[in-house]
## 1
Amino acid sequence: MIPTPDPAYRVGDSVLPGDDVSAAVRTGDVSKIVLGPGLRRLGSQVVVSRAGVLKMPKNNVFVVDAYQKRYIPVKDEHVVGVVTNASSDVFRVDIGASVTASLSYLDFEHATKKNRPNIQVGDVVYAKLSTAGRDMEPELVCVDTHGKAGKLGKLEDGFLLTCSLNLIRKLLSVNCPLLQALGQKWPYECAFGMNGKVWIKARSVKETIAIGNAIYESELMDNAQIKKMCTNLGLVIDSM
Amino acid sequence: MAQRRAHKRNLSKGILDMKFMKKSKEKAEREQEDLESRDLFETDITKALKSSEGAQFIIEHSMVPIERLLNGRMSFKGMNPDVERLMEQETRELREQEKARERLQSNKPEISDVDMAKRLGKTVSKKFSNSNKNKDSDDSEEDEDDSEEESSPPKRGKFLKPADD
């Protein structure tokens, strides 16, 4: 391979897998550098592992950001999944990753060997990833360390839709007004998985469709536009 | 491997399962997991990773802590009261953490001097006034504990022995 001189990448540039961004990462205070998703260490170098834009969301924190729909499981993230197979001791759950995740029937609140949780094929669960390695099948749990379900568990009724991972991150950031604004209009519940699956449950079909469309539409809007859309949506739906 | 585990004392499972040991249990589990993964990948860890050069990098696979994302399970206007209660609890904890962080950054003590003077002034003065009134030293010490409560609990009458028939 012919060694090519590394172009000096900076924060905000598009990068490709294999690009060496050591120089860009080491510009500021170099005592503590956080490498987020999309960056990997290779000896003393910092190398890009996915195509996208090199970004610095916080001081000395670097990530490669790109529009993404395929979920890569990460430990401790919360996901929404669909049960595809309920065999003897584990449920297979589709979380949109390259392989299905496994969910043991014992990892539910109050579940014992005799008392199996009531989960059928096609049910939707909100679960947490307990293991997620590159070479292993991801595993889910529906309890915390003390066997309490908390917010995890089976999601009854409702409606499931799929969107990009970027939209999930946008809606779950602290300063996004959409979910609060919709919550002031109608009572509803939702579960946003980091894997791009969204579960909504509202009182009627009309409201469910309205909330779902609002979520899809907000992908390319800024905060002011989102607020405006929510007030308009409220007026339209209420007049119907 | 076994030796390393042996000389470190761990809390027993029974203790860790107690209600108030939640944080310690999480910590113990994390340590155990670290130990296991270190054993598993010991051969893969190169010298460069272990050196000071490696210590400057922190690898974070998830965007959740980087962007401080909220938990995705939410409920509004009483659709699911259980979830709403948990949400409230979470925001309260978040606010407390924020406060603690601010305090740490601003380098202010947890209780300001004025607050301490006010509080201590009350209890100490009470102690002195009590000890002046009744010179019993035992009494004044007891009062220290329940200074928030009323200073003089209603006195119970002396037990009267019923007359034998």
Note: Chain A touches chain B through 50 residues (CB under 8 Å).
## 2
Amino acid sequence: MTRYILRRVWYMLLTLFIIATASFFLMKILPGSPLNAEDKLSEEQKEIILEKYGLNDPVPVQYAKYLGGLVQGDLGVSFKFDNTPVTQILVDRIGPSALLGFQALIVGSILGIFLGLMASIFRNSPIDFSSTIIAVIGTSIPSFVFAGLLQYVFAVKLGWFPVALWGTFEHTILPTIALAIHPLATAARFTRTEMVEVLHSNYIITARAKGVAESGIILKHGLRNALIPLITVLGPMAVGLMTGSMVIEQIFAIPGIGEQFVTSVMVNDYPTIMGTTLLFAFGFILIILIIDLLYGLIDPRIRLAGGSK
Amino acid sequence: MDKNNLNNIPKDLFVPLVRKEDTSEKISTPSRTFFQDAKRTLFNNKPAVFSMILIVLIIIMSIAGPWMNNFGSDEQDLKRAKMPPRIPVLENVSWLGLNGTLSGNFEGKDVTQATNKANARFDNKKEFIDIEVINKGDGTRNSAEVKATYHIYEAKDMKDTYFWFGSDALGRDQWTRLWEGTRVSLIIAFVAALLDLVIGVSYGGISAFYGGKVDNVMQRIAEILVGIPNLVIILLMMLVLKPGIISIVIALTITGWIGMSRIVRGEVLKLKNQEFVLASRTLGTSNGTIIRKHLVPNISGIIIINTMFSVPGAIFFEAFLSFIGLGIVPPDASLGSLIDLGFDNLRLYPYMLVFPAIVISVLMIAFNIVGDGLRDAFDPKMHK
């Protein structure tokens, strides 16, 4: 197991290094510098600004400095936003994103599992049928289309919730629903398939023969076993949440990481773009690593296969 | 005596039994190949057939749609900006909202104030605004409410003009732009899916077929690429490349093929050591023939399913990129950029969001249902 973990962590660091290097050099190719916005500057002033951002050094030196800073958690200084360090910007903004993602994951997976469970218990009933429809629609419709619908109906027309911005719990409701629909659909679909399979296995028949109550069969013997494979879809789910958060935060004007990224793209703020990209990459990789390790803990077969390689 | 006289049956009643071939093993209906079987299952799947019809219709519309009226996709005219949708015949069905009027509810302390607000909102063309009092109010703030309906086509003296799906903030016809945008989105999706298919199948196929060192090196490379989140790569690529159709296709393909290559590699590894392939190899069949005759037919099902699912994935990513401002740039349109523009005007002109949102949703749902149908058809384990 230790070998497996070490191997995975090594791959993770390698991947992060590649992404950091790639984003650094790609940003160097791009036109644009912190000078673009200010036109009436003397040569000396320009020189001072370039010096301040370390843009006068040769590229390899800049690269070494960048990597050195990265190890210490320093992502450089934003070109815009009053010269705030990028790390500071991201730390300030991670709260709303994390809260939204967490709420959406909880709401989505609990409701999704419940829906899938109901569908599997009442197979081929209207409940099953509507659960399938919800699953297909939820996995197909892009979250921003869904967000637009929610925003228009519940905020603009009915006025039940605030249209946008951040602050109270009420502000989080619509974005959470918009983000949760995809995990909900995935969880519902997966739980149903797994439950149908598990409920046909021999140990369920044994439990029935022994006279275990139906609720005990479904919850204790059925659902617990059906949920183990659900961990595998948690990874793609979390990735989907991150993609979704970019557009959802943009639509509801939430001061989170995703919104920051889109804004930085608009104003060519390269240090912030690079920092956000790295943070996204780090988040993705960390989540997938945790899920893989978790799965290895639960299912010994995976651990053996991974360790023996 | 007669009763027992069974031996006295006249000889001519006996007919020699003609010996026939054994028919119990004979198959009475023509046997169906795997593909015929899959086709049959697919066409029996009603939602999948319906979805295929919808996809074909949308493809036809994306080609023919822009020519169905006389507006160009880039004809800007601020005088006719933000016109609501108006369709001949359908404009008489009031609940559809396609009659070319703008309406809204306005509040004020009394009816006059509310009416004034309505007039101010609708260009002050009182003669074209119908006011319907909902609540007379009692003089307190926002107690009165009126519903105003603005006949904008009459007000702008464009009685004979019909913007079927309305016009956007620059006066461009939404119908034309919607179908041209759909065309762009579909082209991106199909090309990206096709490239994923070609690269993924060759990479995975070569890696698995030749095995050994080749496989080892190729898989190490793929392992690192898989570790990099595709969203990050796509975003970085879009920042560097000039925005446009080709850039989006490149960005999507750079990571898109890996999933396909892994599946193909797994399947080929499984197949290449099976008896029929070994037998064929023993008989001296060349590699090319083995690939063509034995491997490709056996993995084609899974390739088709995978390609079918990568199309909606690409549609989504294109829309996502255009939505956050990294994809298609004006004056070109795509479903994503139209939705983005729709959001800017959501409060007052929801129709700008509704039509592209419907098209993209229908497309995504239809492709997913067809993909599910194909999976059921090609995966024998799923046959119920």
Note: The radius of gyration of chain B is 33 Å.
